[in-house]
Specification:
With about 1000 residues, the chain is mostly beta strands. About 5% of the residues lie in helices and about 40% in strands. Strands 11, 13, 14, 17, 22, 23, 24 and 26 form an 8-stranded antiparallel β-sheet that branches. Strands 12, 15, 16, 18, 19, 20, 21 and 25 form an 8-stranded antiparallel β-sheet that branches. The longest helix is centred in the N-terminal third of the chain and has 9 residues. It is elongated, with a radius of gyration of 49 Å.
Length: about 1000
């Protein structure tokens, strides 16, 4: 007897439902006078009973019928005057009585007839356990059981003995009974095979091939004479790992006909065990194809229990013996005489016990592992780390056992970019697939030709795609052409596509995103917007190859003010060819369309020799076509921009070098059978324009004066499709249409049929030498709408940055901001390249009159040689190459002076007091009249010198290209030189400049009009405090 007169705790595991026989009570513990734990059979209430004091039944209030079928943990804690009852570590009720007598019987009343049923692990403490201590007891377990009754399996088929070829005894029983078997087949089936040592659930597994119900392979374990495979009257436990292949019909796992068998049928495990020879289990144990499942069936003489992966899922009461017969035990089929209903899949670790296993023993068997390398080589790596798309990958797979060295190979792989190092097992390469799970089968071979194979699943994940500039960040839109470029970085397999802008809250309208490259995008104005602040937006896109690889920028803040609410110039634009590329050679799509239509174009019959003339465009580079004696050059624009145009507008800048004898074709658009689908040209004198639409002469526009003046002119041609009305603008002025024949059909051009500089009489061909445009074309745009006068005015003023390696900075920049100059010393500082100048004569610094900060001052008094000599300049003297000199000048108004000059008699010259321009030392002047207007004020001058081509020179005053002409003499060929003079063309000549020079810069290339303007607006900080 156990004395529990003070505080106490009784705990145990019990099986619900309780015993089916007995009187009106179920008793777990009974003392001499009291019951500590019992259940009222009538009400199923849990409580205690006071015999000693005579107060009788004390209920806890908990109804045991609410419990699920199976094992549960009970703990009764007696303390003070009450008893608390815990089920599965949860307080369920309290009885207002505590027994203080001893414990005399367990599981029944002293006189019997109150049998409790199954219970286990009963413990008694002479103290009241806390709730935490009860929880610890509930969680406690034992993985093994000790004692002579806990016998090892009488049969244990590990599927290890290799290989199987149909030899008797080859299927080894590793249990105590030595009931070995043989691999067999029926009909057109094949013998079961075995996996590699690491390919099964525990080392090797048996692989069973099912052709159909009547043809397949199986293991024949016979009917041993010792009866080990016959339960007789013993309890019985059978377990196995199975990996069902998913085949339909009855797939027998094992069978001893008319004694015990188990199957997979329709995705469920079912069994038939005597003495109840019928299929039991129903749908209680579902299995998934190609997934390992541990199946255990236990019969203890009272019930049959079905376990899945060590967890009880089904039971039924049963008594009686399973019995004995002469049928063979088969794994993978049924029927001793005529095997059938074959299993398709893998089977491993089949164990048979002639006793009923407890749950902890079943779980211990499930978790069992072994050293698979005892007699062969085994791959010990069980999993691979994740990989990231389009990223490098490296992981070394390991093996043990066998005889080194090992050789490694990949048998199959879902990731083409990975390979394995044969002598190390390093799996490496690039993950060239999208996110997902990919199987890779690897084989290792040892020096004794023993092998192992393992199928690894490599999970490929998306990396992080990040956007720069990163969020959060604030952008201020103050212009109708506002834009912000973004770029994305991170692992991806394709270009980023489906860029979208998402607004958080209010959408101000008038913004879009356009792709500018594989991982770049431009967020820009697209229409009118509502002025305001605090708008929030984000950008999203996805990988074109891997759709789930997405980028999300997070939210940015946008403030809109001023002109930021206006419509941008490119609204309605379907083509924009800036013609700014640094080099053309005829490569397809070399001329970029900036509109987003991707109507890219290419040059024809142009190359590096044309680059020097292309550099002097209107905005950055331009198309320089058919200069001098060339007649076969043209530019082909992408026809994609000219598709089904109703309303349209065509805009461009042009500058004429010389006139053809017939017409000057600016743009020619054609399609098959209609060579004049969209055509605009100048007449032979450059004084009128003619338009054609869909084979009809639709417009005639008199300009009034020739545009063949060497200057840039802006052209806009619009057509309104509803009535065919056309308007042509030259330099913002609308011209009157003298033709007035409207065409109201849409315009579509064929590939190769959108041409600048030639007139085509068939698509992309049949040019006429007398209809060529000779000169420069720049900034070509086409719209699917009619531009207004305001739009035209805006386009006239439009410019943009020049981007590319050809847009080099000045090689020298002279601020003229020194505190003073010392004659004969190189003290005129070049702030860029170190080509410092040396002053002579009365050259000096003027600190009170300048364009910016200080200025250099020069005098042209008799005998005064004031100038600055600069030597060693790395300028090109190659024929045709250009050099640009920009400076600010304040001329005193005296005649016959040179503000700048080269040592080769190539200079800028005031011829008298009214003419100014280029001089080649031949009593000549190529320049402008009326120069006296330049006296006594600051002006910006840009002079573009062409080597050995003086009539290709250009002169800008305050950013405006001048209409220069030969005013006197005949210019001769000259080149620039490495020696340059500010004031005069040598130290000793008499053409010294009288006035001031400031902010002089030298460029080793010709500048465009926009770059001249940019130079004019350059600034910097001034010296001094």
């Amino acid at each position: 007897m156990l004395d529990i007169s003070a505080d106490w705790t009784i705990a145990a595991w019990f099986y619900w439902p309780l015993a089916s026989t007995g009187s009106s009570w179920w008793t777990l513990t009974r003392g001499t006078n009291d019951h500590q734990i019992l259940v009222n059979r009538g009400s199923n209430l849990l409580g205690t009973y006071d015999n000693k004091g005579g107060t009788g039944w004390h209920s806890s209030g908990f109804n045991m019928s609410s419990l699920s079928v199976g094992w549960h943990h009970i703990a009764a804690v007696g303390s003070g005057t009450e008893t608390k009852f815990y089920i599965d570590a949860t307080l369920k009720g309290t009885a207002d009585y505590k027994s203080d007598t001893d414990i005399k019987t367990l599981g029944n009343y002293i006189g019997g007839n109150q049998n409790w049923g199954k219970f286990d692990e009963l413990k008694v403490w002479n103290k009241a356990l806390s709730e935490d201590e009860i929880s610890q007891e509930y969680a406690a377990s034992r993985s093994s059981c000790s004692g002579t009754c806990y016998t090892e399996p009488i049969a244990d088929y590990r599927m290890e003995n290799f290989p199987w070829n149909g030899t008797a005894g080859e299927v080894v029983d590793s249990g105590t009974g030595e009931s070995n078997g043989v691999a067999a087949k029926a009909g057109s089936g094949t013998l079961p095979t075995q996996t590699t040592p690491s390919g099964g659930k525990v080392c090797r597994a048996g692989v069973f091939s099912r052709v159909n119900a009547n043809n397949g392979g199986y293991l024949d374990l016979g009917d041993p004479a010792d009866g080990d495979l016959d339960p007789g009257t013993d309890p019985w436990t059978m377990s196995a790992w199975i990996k069902w292949g998913g085949s339909a019909g009855e797939n027998i796992i094992y069978n001893k006909e008319n004694l015990y068998e188990t199957r997979v049928n329709g995705g469920y495990i079912q069994y038939a065990w005597q003495p109840h020879w019928a299929w039991d289990g129903g749908t209680s144990l579902p299995v998934t194809a190609d997934t390992w499942t541990y199946v255990t069936i236990v019969y203890d003489g009272f019930e049959q229990i079905l376990y899945k992966d060590g967890v009880r899922v089904y039971s039924r009461p049963q008594t009686g013996a399973i019995g004995t017969n002469s049928s063979k035990l088969l794994i993978g089929a049924r029927g001793s005489a005529s095997p059938r209903n074959f299993f398709g899949g893998m089977v491993d670790e089949v164990k048979i016990y002639n006793r009923a296993l407890a749950e902890n023993e079943i779980k211990s068997d499930k978790d069992e592992s072994r050293d698979c390398s005892a007699d062969t080589v085994v791959i010990t790596t069980t999993s691979l780390p994740d990989g990231t798309i389009n990223s490098s990958y490296s992981y070394t797979i390991s093996a043990t056992g066998g005889t080194t060295p090992y050789g490694w190979e990949i048998l199959s792989s879902g990731i083409p970019g990975l390979s394995i190092v044969p002598n190390t097992g390093e799996l490496h390469g690039t993950i060239d697939v999208c996110a997902g799970d990919y199987n890779i089968t690897v084989r290792v071979t040892d020096a004794g030709s023993r092998t192992d194979e393992r199928i690894f699943t490599l999970a490929v994940v998306n990396g992080t795609l990040s956007v720069s500039p990163s969020s959060p960040q604030t952008f201020n839109c103050t212009s109708s052409t506002f834009y912000q470029d973004f770029s994305a970085s991170g692992p991806r397999l394709g270009a980023l596509e489906n860029w979208a802008v998402t607004w958080h809250g209010t959408n101000p309208g008038g913004f879009e995103v356009i792709s500018t490259g594989e991982a770049t995008v431009r967020f820009r104005k697209s229409g009118t917007s509502t002025i305001g602040s605090g708008y929030q937006f984000k950008l999203t896109a996805r990988d074109s190859v891997c759709n789930d690889n997405e980028v999300d920028s997070g939210y940015y803040t946008l403030n809109i003010s001023g002109e930021g609410g206006d419509e941008p110039y490119y609204s309605g634009m379907v083509g924009e060819w800036r013609l700014d590329e640094c080099a053309w050679d005829g490569t397809t799509d070399e001329i970029s369309d900036a509109s987003g239509t991707n109507a890219h174009g290419e040059s024809h019959n142009m190359g590096s020799a044309d680059t020097v003339n292309r550099s002097i465009g209107k905005v950055c580079y331009s198309a320089a076509v058919n200069l001098d004696t060339v007649t076969n050059q043209y530019v082909n624009l992408g026809h994609e921009a000219f598709q089904n145009l109703g309303d349209f507008s065509l805009s461009m800048w042009f500058r004429i070098d010389s006139l053809s004898s017939s017409i000057q074709t600016l743009f020619s658009g054609a399609k098959a059978g209609a060579d004049n689908t969209m055509l605009i040209f100048l007449n032979s004198t450059g004084t009128a324009l003619t338009t054609w639409v869909n084979q009809t002469t639709t417009g005639g526009f008199n300009i009034g004066s020739t545009v063949a003046d060497g200057l840039w002119h802006h052209l806009v041609w619009t057509r309104k499709v509803s009535d065919g009305t056309e308007v042509v603008y030259i330099d913002k002025a609308a011209l009157s249409d003298t033709q007035g024949i409207g065409n109201i059909s849409n315009v579509t051009l064929d590939a190769g049929g959108a041409i600048l500089g030639q007139e085509q009489d068939s698509v992309g061909d049949a040019f006429d030498v007398n209809q060529i445009f000779h000169g420069w074309i720049d900034e070509v745009m086409v719209y699917n709408k009619v531009l207004t006068q305001t739009d035209v005015n805006n386009l006239y003023s439009l410019t943009h940055d020049c981007v590319g390696s050809c847009y080099t900075d000045a090689i020298a920049w002279y601020y003229m901001d020194e505190d003073s100059w010392t004659t004969g010393n190189p003290c005129v500082i070049d702030s860029i390249g170190g080509y410092d100048g040396t002053p002579t004569g009365d050259s000096s610094i003027n600190k009170t009159d300048s364009h910016l900060c200080y200025a250099g001052e020069f005098a042209d008094a008799p005998g005064n040689d004031s100038c600055i000599t600069i030597t060693g300049l790395p300028v090109s003297t190659t024929a045709g190459d250009k050099t640009t000199v920009c400076f600010w000048m304040k001329w005193a108004g005296n005649g016959n002076e040179m503000p700048i000059g080269w040592a080769n008699s190539y200079d800028l010259f005031f011829y008298g007091t009214t003419r100014f321009g280029f001089n080649t030392g031949a009593s000549d002047l190529y320049g402008i009249d009326g120069a006296n207007a330049l006296a006594n004020d600051w002006y910006h001058v840009a002079a573009i010198f062409s080597n050995n081509a003086p009539l290709k020179n250009q002169l800008y005053i305050d950013g405006t290209l001048q209409p220069i002409a030969v005013l006197t003499g005949t210019p001769v060929n000259r080149t620039v030189s490495s020696t340059f003079y500010i004031s005069g063309w040598s130290p000793s000549d008499g053409y010294k400049f009288n006035g001031m020079i400031d902010e002089l810069r030298i460029y080793t290339r010709g500048l465009s009009s926009s770059e001249v303007t940019e130079d004019m607006n350059l600034t910097h900080s001034c010296p001094g405090p």
